[in-house]
Amino acid sequence: MRLLLYTGKGGVGKTTTAAATAALAARRGVRTLVLSADAAHSLGDVFDLHLSATPLPVSIAPCLDALEIDARDVIEGHWGQIRAYVVELLRHQGIDEVVAEELALLPGADELATLVSVEDHATSGQYDLIVVDCAPTGSALRLVTLPEVAHGGFKWLLRLQRAAAKIAEPIARELVGTPLPKAEVFAEAERLLYKTLEQLRARLLSKETSIRLVVTPETMVIDEARRSLTDLALFELASDAVVMNRVWPDEALREEFFRDWGRNQQERLRDVETHFSPMSMLVAPLQADEVCGLEALAAHGEVLFAGLDPMAVLGTRPGLRFERNKQQASLRLPMNGRSGKAVQVLRVDDELVIGVEGRRRRIALPAGFASLEVERVLVESGELVVTFANDPDLGTTPGEHP
Ligand SMILES: Nc1ncnc2c1ncn2[C@@H]1O[C@H](COP(=O)(O)OP(=O)(O)OP(=O)(O)O)[C@@H](O)[C@H]1O
Ligand SMILES: [Mg+2]
Questions:
Q1: 197: closest CA among 267, 311, 115, 123?
Q2: Which segment of 234-248, 263-277, 380-394 scores lowest on mean pLDDT?
Q3: Is the beta carbon of 366 within 6 A of some atom in ligand 1?
Q4: How far is the C-alpha of 43 from the C-alpha of 279, rounded, in Å?
Q5: Of 343, 324, 321, nearest in space to 388 by CA
Q6: What is the pLDDT of residues 18-37, one digit of tens each?
Q7: Residue 139, pLDDT score
Q8: Residues 197 and 78: beta-carbon distance below 8 Å
């Protein structure tokens, strides 16, 4: 089951590109589901259909289903107990019930619900390809990094449960000062922690999942996409292609008014090719009108993929990696134009905490690194290089010891 997620800055053509990919794949006989994970759904609009009325996928053509996910529906279905606890907790602190209900949609809950829904369809056996129209970059990055980040949060919740179980309920209530969650809440949290999050993480890290970035020939748009490559690399998420959308066709550029625009566009196409390689660059022209309806979308897909298979893995990108040779043990992370000032590195027990402009990941050190101290952190040839202190055994295998 191939999973493709499209993201990029607001308005660049994410929905159009996701729908065009799905329409083309379905036309070629691939059982495809295209779904919108952007709370501001517009998938129905591009297909000229009303999708929001149903929580189930709607068949819109042979081999093609579409769905707009309602995160709140999924939350009610999957985590009623946890939500009830959070509402109780907030009300206990004097917060009005209606406000508490709103607040109980914890940050990340929508994203988690979306991923759970994607996973349900991915495991249904009904589809060979799922194409996700994501929200703009920041929110989409929260979506794809959430299973790992939430894992840490739930661990804390479970620790609290264990601690509370040791103390008599009234004392605990006094100490904690809030109602204690019921056992079922923890049962759900545990299920969520060990099963769902692990499963979602595995799905996102799978070789069959790719995140595709949509850009237009504008510097700000390209810069944002380039920065997001570092976030994706930090979480070891794979990106195989960048879509350059709305490229002015030659006939328009022959007009006097567009001459400078044409020169700039060439430059930005070259920039994208340089900065995103060896990911594939797919180019889509600015069409004469908005791209709406199944026919127009499939035709747009034909031009965009220019003979390539829309569901193939179209390229790779070096990510975060640990390297060890006789001279050095290091961790490397491509910085994609970011300076060293954006990075923080901290060693905590057997983990390395790496922060890149507010996004932080705890990475378990692999065997052989856990006993080494961090010696140096610098940005070298466009990569963050964390060097570990030399250890006398470095590079020798047990058999080579004198
Ligand atoms: N290559 C193109 N040629 C002509 N029009 C296009 C092209 N790509 C997108 N559009 C039009 O631009 C508008 C925005 O596209 P789209 O909705 O796909 O962007 P988006 O990135 O999903 O936006 P949002 O961030 O709001 O979700 C739509 O009206 C769409 O039809
Ligand atoms: Mg959109």
A1: 115
A2: 380-394
A3: no
A4: 26
A5: 324
A6: 999 999 999 999 999 999 98
A7: 79
A8: no
Q: Domains of the chain (ranges plus CATH)?
A: 2-72+108-305 (3.40.50.300), 321-400 (2.60.40.790)
Of the segments 17-21, 151-155, 249-253, 390-394, which one has the largest average pLDDT value? 17-21
- Whole-number Å distance between alpha carbons of 123 and 83: 26
Q: Which residues contact 352 (CB under 8 A, 6 or more apart)?
A: 331, 345, 346, 362, 363, 365, 374, 386
Residues 180, 157: contact at Cβ < 8 Å? Answer: no
Q: Which ligand is nearest to the CA of 252?
A: 1
Q: Which ligand is nearest to the CA of 243?
A: 1
The string over 339-366, giving b where at least 16 C-beta atoms fall within 10 Å of a residue's C-beta and e elsewhere, is eeebbebeeeeeebebebeebebbbebe
Cα of 275 from ligand 1 centre, angstroms: 24
Q: Is the pLDDT of residue 174 over 90?
A: no
Nearest to 294 by CA among 24, 2, 42, 75: 24
Helix or strand (DSSP H, E) at 374: strand 374-380
Is the pLDDT confidence value at 173 over 70? no
Distance CA 360, CA 274 (A): 27
As given in the structure block, the two tokens for residue 255 are 């007009």
- Rounded to 5 degrees, φ, ψ at 334 are -65, 135
- Residue 99's contacts (CB-CB under 8 Å, 6 or more residues apart) are 90
Shortest-distance Cα residue to atom 19 of ligand 1: 13
Interatomic CA distance for residues 184 and 340, integer angstroms:
46
Q: Is 136 in the pocket of ligand 1 (CB under 6 A)?
A: yes
Cα 257 to chain centroid, rounded:
39
Per-residue pLDDT at 76: 73
50 CA distance to ligand 2 centroid (A)? 15
| 243, amino acid identity | V
Rounded Cα gap, residues 87 and 97, in angstroms: 7
State residue 17's pLDDT score: 98
Please report the DSSP string for 322-362 in residue order: EEE-SS-EEEEEE-TT--GGGEEEEEETTEEEEEETTEEEE
Q: Whose CA is nearest to atom 15 of ligand 1?
A: 13
Q: For position 398, what pLDDT does the model report?
A: 39
